[in-house]
Amino acid sequence: MEKTHWKKVVSDPNFIGEGDFQEGEEKVLTIAKVNASETVATAEGKSKKAVVHWAEPGNKPMILNVARSKNIEKVSGSGYFEDWPGTKVQLYIEHGIKAFGEVVSAVRVRPYKPRIQQQAPVPPCTDCGNAIHPAAGHDARWMATYTAKKYGVPLCADCASKRKAEAMEQAAPTEETVEIADDNREEDLL
Ligand SMILES: [Zn+2]
Fold this sequence. Notes:
Layout: H1 6-10, E1 27-42, E2 45-54, E3 62-63, H2 66-76, E4 88-99, E5 102-109, H3 140-151, H4 157-171, H5 175-189
Antiparallel strand pairs: 1-2, 1-4, 2-3, 4-5
Bound molecules: zinc ion (ZN).
């Protein structure tokens, strides 16, 4: 199930942070542009920062610091902002960083070209709204993909069984459906 990290709600909502990642998630994002001098409002007040914006919609921009910039340079092969658009980077959360006497977590850039495929989270079941769980020896993603192909929407195992039973009932012709078919034929003649 999709989880909500408190930092997603409580911390700076304008820039990408730990709260935007599921546990263990790594994101592959494409740099759309770098704004070398963007006014950023922080707890200490307003300041100018270099900010990366992403090509993939729905992802918050990322403030550049030295560590992130160095690794983007490694991935892109250039230290110039102008050369960065189009570069794909892999982001992850590093825990246990000591900063200003506190232990914090931070978004980091992997110092190499992305090695994972960006995967969308497994959607919930369309019929009951619950998370899709592994079933019949298949993982949740397989279940979602299989049911979406077969029924047009992602379903959990229980709802997929229900739909299957319904489909079999509908497949058996009843007197009612035969009558409707006859009516339609009369209308066609008129
Ligand atoms: Zn369901």
